[in-house]
Structure formats: C-alpha cells, structure tokens
Amino acid sequence: MNDQDYMRLALEEAWKGCGFVNPNPMVGAVIVKNGRVIGRGAHERYGGPHAERNAIAHCTENLQDATLYVTLTPCGHFGKTPPCTDVVLENGIRRVVIGSHDPNPLVAEKSIEILRQHGVEVTTGILQQECDALNDAFFHFIRTHRPYVVMKYAMTMDGKAATASGKSKWITGELARERVHLDRKRYTAIMTGIGTVLADDPLLTCRIPGGRNPIRIVCDTRLRIPLTAKIVKTAEKTKTIIVTGSGDDKKRLLLNQAGCEVLTVTIENGRIDLKALVRRLGEMNIDSILLEGGPQLNSAALKSGIVNKIQAYVAPKLFGGQQAKTPVGGTGVDSPEAAWRLSAPVMTKLGEDILLESEVVSCSQEL
C-alpha cells in the first residue's frame, strides 16, 4: 500500500464523525508501522479527543518511527483539547502525512513548522481534493463566519419539481432519499419556507438510525405557521427556529411555549433578508444549512447570494405541464449571459436516479 491507500483509510475513519462534530471538521487518522496499520481514529464528537489522539489511544505497540496519516493538519494550539502536535512528538512518530491544510490561522503552517523543527518528516497534499471535499462547510465557515448553504431539490428530466396539481411525492427513489437523510445528518441545520410547511407539513428530521436531527429553520415572514404543524408539535425534541419579521406577540408567545425559538430579522421588499439571516445564524455557530425550499425561497436564496452549492437529484421521469413547478421560481434572469454559473458537476448514480453537485461559481449579488 502507498500514501494514497492509507489516506483513503483515514478518510473512511473521518466519516465516523459525520453530523456529530460540527462546527469542527471531520478528521480521520491512521498510524502505520513497518507496512502495517497499527492504529485508527476519528474526531467523533464536538469537544471530544481529536482523530490523532484517538488513533494513538487505540495502538497496542510502540509508535517510535511510525507514520501518521491524517486528513487535516494536526492542531498546534490549545483549544478544547491539547495540541495534537504534542502527542505526535511525545510518541516518537517519524513521519506525518497530511491531506488538507487547515484554514484556521491558529493552525495553518504553525503546526507543520513545529513538527519539522523537531525532526518529523511532513508530507502534505495527499488526496487533498478528497480531503477538502470532506470539510467544505468547515472551510467556508472558518473563512467567512457564515454557514455553508447547500440548495437541494429533486426534479424530473423535464425539469419539474412537482406536477401541475402540485404533487411531488415521490420524484426520486429510495436510494436518493437515503442520501438526502445522510445530508440532513451531515449539515447542522435544514431550512425551508412557510409555503412548504403549509403544503406538506414536513418533519424535516433525519431518519438514519443513530443519526442526528438537524436544527430546523422555517422562513415565515408573517408568522403564518400553524400551531398544529408537525414542526411546532415536535419542537421540544428537535431545535426549531421560526424566522420572521412579524410583530405578532401573541403568536410568538404561543410558539415559544411550544418550544420554538422565534428569530426576528429585517424585512427587505416584503421578504426576509436572507443575507442578514445567514449572518445571524453564523453568530449562533450554525456552520452549514441544507436548503430544502420551494421555488420562491430557492429563487430568493440565489438572488441574495447565500447559496454555495447545488444538489440536483434528477429522476428518469417526465411530468410535463406548463404550470408545473420548476425548482427555481421568481422572474429568473433576462438572458443566458446573466445565468448563475456553476462548477462542472460531480455525478453520483443512486439507483435509477442521478445526483448532480456543483459549486456556485458566480451569482447575481455577492454577500
């Protein structure tokens, strides 16, 4: 096995922290000595030991002259746990192989410099693209202090998100829906609009056994959400934020009593100011949002410039109908030149369906 093979094992370990380490990154580590894997570990929970320390703790033999493979630069500062560079040096590890560079200025090159000054050989950039993709939300949050927003929708091959009568269950198959629930576990929050709540009365929870429910955020300008909505009735069990510009104190009190947090933000042109909202959510340490909105919220999110990534689930079906909804509503752009530009899509096959994922390269308005 070579460096890439061992880093792939470290990536597998990193996924054990999915949904439980936010706003920290997912990190995996593997320790190799004389061609044998002698230790594995992951950062499993926020505030818990880092991947390097867990991997070392699981070793049953001397680590002198071993090689540590880690998906992200080991920390060299005191945070919630002591520096990982210390434990590397204490155990005589000879070589450290790193996937991603940590964007945190407290870490960055400082950790690598510490290791090299003590005679440790450091190799960087192994499977960097894969390691970076693991923590796109973390990197964005560290740099901007705002949540990474993933706009997700399902559509037919003729671009319809629902039939002309408004029915949309189910466009995609089970494998695609399982992937959606994995992302509900992965990202800290899920956001939708009041239109979706009134039409579908969703729970917006994660149905993966042993998973973690995301924080539920509902954009509700005029505070129309019914007290009988499933989201409201389960708010004491799953953190729920209702975002509004309404001054209806009686309704706010009733929602508070049901367990909801009511967050007031500025209103712009009769709608919630989404740029102001993501700034507030970032201040609340919400690092990532899965946007499962309807056509109007999706359009508003794109126009406000808050969307970082698009996930389009495409099913081999045709709905037809001029009045059938498409994933993005609003007035759209005036010309093809004004389109939102996306990166080349990464395609994943999920049964009969495909998932296309692209980063938003340019948008109509920057944050």
TrEMBL record:
Keyword Lyase: no
Gene Ontology biological-process entries: riboflavin biosynthetic process
UniProt-listed InterPro entries: APOBEC/CMP_deaminase_Zn-bd (IPR016192), CMP_dCMP_dom (IPR002125), Cytidine_deaminase-like (IPR016193), DHFR-like_dom_sf (IPR024072), Eubact_RibD (IPR004794), RibD_C (IPR011549), RibDG_C (IPR002734), Riboflavin_Biosynth_HTPR (IPR050765)
Coiled-coil residue windows: none
Residues noted as binding Zn(2+) in the record, renumbered to the chain: 50, 75, 84
Cofactor binding annotation: Binds 1 zinc ion.
One Pfam family hit: RibD_C
Enzyme Commission designation: 3.5.4.26, 1.1.1.193
Residue ranges constituting the CMP/dCMP-type deaminase domain according to the UniProt record: 1-123
Active site positions: 52 (proton donor)
Cofactor: Zn(2+)
Catalytic activity: 2,5-diamino-6-hydroxy-4-(5-phosphoribosylamino)-pyrimidine + H2O + H(+) = 5-amino-6-(5-phospho-D-ribosylamino)uracil + NH4(+); 5-amino-6-(5-phospho-D-ribitylamino)uracil + NADP(+) = 5-amino-6-(5-phospho-D-ribosylamino)uracil + NADPH + H(+)
Pathway connected to this protein: Cofactor biosynthesis; riboflavin biosynthesis; 5-amino-6-(D-ribitylamino)uracil from GTP: step 3/4; Cofactor biosynthesis; riboflavin biosynthesis; 5-amino-6-(D-ribitylamino)uracil from GTP: step 2/4
Binding site for substrate: 168, 184, 204, 207, 292
Superkingdom assignment: Bacteria
GO molecular function: 5-amino-6-(5-phosphoribosylamino)uracil reductase activity; diaminohydroxyphosphoribosylaminopyrimidine deaminase activity; NADP binding; zinc ion binding
Residue numbers binding NADP(+): 154, 170, 196, 200, 221, 294-300
Keywords: Hydrolase, Metal-binding, Multifunctional enzyme, NADP, Oxidoreductase, Riboflavin biosynthesis, Zinc
NCBIfam families according to UniProt: eubact_ribD, ribD_Cterm
Similarity-based family: In the C-terminal section; belongs to the HTP reductase family.
Name of the molecule in the record: Riboflavin biosynthesis protein RibD
Organism this protein belongs to: Eubacterium limosum
Gene for this chain: ribD
